[in-house]
Fold this sequence. Notes:
Layout: H1 3-24, E1 28-30, E2 34-36, E3 42-43, E4 49-50, E5 56-59, E6 63-66, E7 73-78, E8 83-86, E9 91-97, E10 99-105, E11 110-113, E12 116-120, E13 123-128, E14 134-136, E15 139-140, E16 146-151, E17 157-159, E18 162-164, E19 169-177, E20 180-182, E21 185-187, E22 191-198, E23 201-203, E24 206-208, E25 213-219, E26 229-231, E27 234-236, E28 240-246, E29 251-256, E30 259-261, E31 265-270, E32 277-279, E33 290-291, E34 300-301, E35 307-308, E36 318-321, E37 324-326, E38 340-348, E39 351-353, E40 357-366, E41 372-382, E42 388-399, E43 404-405, E44 408-412, E45 419-427, E46 440-449
Amino acid sequence: MQGKPASIILLFLLLVSALVLAHNVQPVKASGTITINADGSINPPTAPISTLDNVTYTLVDNIIIIGELPYGSLGIIVERDNIIIDGDGYMVQGSGTTGYGFYCHNTNNVTIKRTNVNGWDQTAIRFDNANNTTIIDNIACNNDGNGIVSDGGQFNKILNNNVSYNGRMGIGAAHNRKLTIQLNTIENNGDGIQYGATESAILQNVISNNYGDGILFFGESDTIGSFNKIALNVIEGNQLGLEFLALLSPANDLLYHNNVTNNIQQFVIDESGGTWVNTWNKGYPSGGNYWSDYAGEDLYCGPYQNETGSDGIGDTPYVLDVNNVDHYPLMNPYIETHDVAVTRVLAAPSVVCQGYGCEIMVSVANTGDFVETFNVTVYANMTDTGNVTTIRTFPNVTLDSLDPMLPIFMWNTSGFDIGNYTISAYAMPVQGEMNIADNTFVDGTVEIIQGMTGGSGGRMPYMN
């Protein structure tokens, strides 16, 4: 019995020692920059970054860069292409330093993910003249400077990051092409997004409570600032919701299904240097944007809002200026949807000899807000008997939002009885789809008649 108290005391001492050791574990501190070199090596080799294949680099501890170099500090410089840097939840922290947490220059196909980058006076994550860069699932918060900046390059993606509480801007983009900024939380920064890109997209972000602009658009030329898609964003509670600064005359941006709510000033369009002409809706009946200060009514419906009955779209336009008008302002905040539809079926000719070909065109569209994969099946319904036969199935049709598909094929009527047929097409509903009324489209009839005979007395063959 005397051994039990002794063992309990020993266990207690071991637990206390473990707690003390855990409390005294310190993040790895570095006085200089860490570089992932072009040849795959890491400098210094003692940096807490592990790789087994020179492709995936994983942080194994927090990194704090201390001190200040004459021209600013850099945390991790990336010189190698075709790699993934996985922060695994660890920090890359600046401590009394200027410069960048991550810096990529002239790189290709670099992914930075799951890293907490904070404490930087300039920018947490910056990539210049880099292509095919993916910045995903990071926390870029509490920096005196910017969160994430892309200057130059194409096909870059900034996805699902928390970019908040930064002293200047959350996300900056300049001289980019084919850039995607999507599914980010961008809150309590100077400006939410400063944006000068072309053929790019800002999608499904929450941009709120920034004490400058929600989104500031720079039209630096007739092309930079043009042909962008801005959709499905929540732009709320900012000092200024949307600002367009036309230094020259960019145009043809498409803005729709954004919820622009309760900003101190909803929008500013500065055309002192040129004009900026955008499209502010996705057409009827899909509609435009929700504006919390819109004061119109919804008593009518239709493309010209002159038919009896409400449709969730305001009867009068929301006018930003003479060049920018939302013709279909939404009466309520937009809620993202899953929706695919068959919009048309055409069959020609309407009378065909048995064994001949009948050309069928099917128009399919993704009218929702997500990339969808689904099957489309075309049927022939014999009017006299009610028998339904599958003519053709298009499996695994994949469409992005707004994308159409227009398959055209030849229906071989060999084996089909003489008579009248109704042609229809059906898009299989996707997960989460509520409106399935537009998944089926029925065309008119095709009549199959007795086949013609050629000079040899035999019926002419089916011709594709």
